[in-house]
Design a protein that fits this description.
globular; Glyco_hydro/deAcase_b/a-brl; TIM Barrel; seven-stranded parallel β-sheet; hydrolase; 311 residues; alpha/beta; Polysaccharide deacetylase family protein
């Protein structure tokens, strides 16, 4: 999975850090040590009205336990208003420094003069992760990430965690430092998984401690999985889930004219894909599978308040 590979290539979690907590994450949240915990998480809120409608519906039905918001995107004000009116919902910031769609673009929340290495000649974020990883300044990435979090808080979002859109803000070691530094500054957990190993970078090591949240497994449907059938992929993920802290990333929207326009000529993670994700996670079949496999849905808010910000 692309996001896992990007994170795994850049981050270090040492054995000492993984073993430093006196209690397991499950025990810290009040569950047995061998519990199967799942953050069922919706990405990309704020990107479009269709994405917001589907994601808000799934949150209201408790079909997903968490979601994250793309602050630079045009429909951010709508989802920020929802967050402000629903303070119990688990909403993080989907840190965004790319703009991948063909005809639908956005740029930084920071003055473009201050983060010029992150934008193309038209003032938009680059379309690809490779471009921002090659051309972007880590110092400017840090400025932009921090300002996205600040804007979310100012807009009424009780930010529960940070994660990264397309893996871009974790695509180089220097970007990873910026990502972790901003998370630490706001006392927020950041999405990382247990496959993260082995870069001996003191700058990264210094940002990790016994309150660092590390997922045991991160799942996300890839194009080859979608071709075989999203229902089959998600069913197997749930049935084969092991004890520990797991996260399943989904992308929810309706296959309507708006989302078809946003994702034009981009079938991967397009409108049909997002409708299929919505249909599955909001289905009785999904709810029954979670129950049958004794999987407990948890939130980043619990992890933030009971571990990262614990007294």
């Amino acid at each position: 999975m692309r996001i896992i590979l990007l994170l795994s290539s850049c981050l270090l979690i040492s054995t000492g850090i993984l073993n430093a907590q006196n209690k397991s994450i499950a025990e810290s949240l009040g569950y047995p040590a061998n519990a199967k915990l799942l953050i069922l998480h919706a990405d990309d809120l704020g990107v479009a009205h269709s994405e917001n409608r589907a994601s808000m519906s799934a949150l209201d039905k408790n079909a997903v336990s968490s979601a994250s918001i793309m602050v630079p995107c045009p429909w951010f004000p709508e989802i920020a208003a929802y967050a402000s009116g629903n303070p119990g919902k688990d909403l993080g910031v989907h840190l965004t420094i790319t703009s991948e769609w063909k005809h639908y673009k956005w740029g930084p929340v920071t003055s473009r003069d201050s983060v010029s290495s992150l934008t193309n000649k038209d003032g938009y974020f680059y379309s690809s992760v490779d471009s921002v990883a090659t051309l972007g300044s880590a110092a400017e990435v840090e400025i932009e990430l921090r300002n996205q979090v600040k804007k979310a808080f100012r807009s009424g979002v009780d930010v529960t965690h940070l994660d990264v859109h397309m893996g871009a803000a974790a695509s180089t070691s220097e970007f990873v430092k910026a990502y972790l530094k901003v998370g630490r500054e706001f006392h927020l957990p950041v999405l990382m998984d247990k496959r993260i190993h082995a870069i001996e970078d003191p700058g990264i090591r210094s940002l990790l401690d016994d309150r660092t949240i590390v997922l045991d497994k991160l799942y996300m449907e890839e194009p080859e999985d979608y071709k075989k059938g999203p229902k089959e992929f998600y069913t197997q993920v749930i049935r084969n889930m092991e004890p520990g802290l797991n996260c399943l990333l989904v992308h929810l929207a309706h296959d309507d004219e708006e989302m078809q326009g946003v994702t034009k000529e981009h079938p991967d993670y397009g409108a049909t894909w997002r409708q299929a994700d919505f249909d599955f996670v909001t289905s009785k079949e999904c709810a029954d599978l979670l129950k049958e496999n004794n999987i407990k849905l948890v939130t980043w808010r619990e992890l933030r308040d009971k571990i990262v910000r614990a007294e």
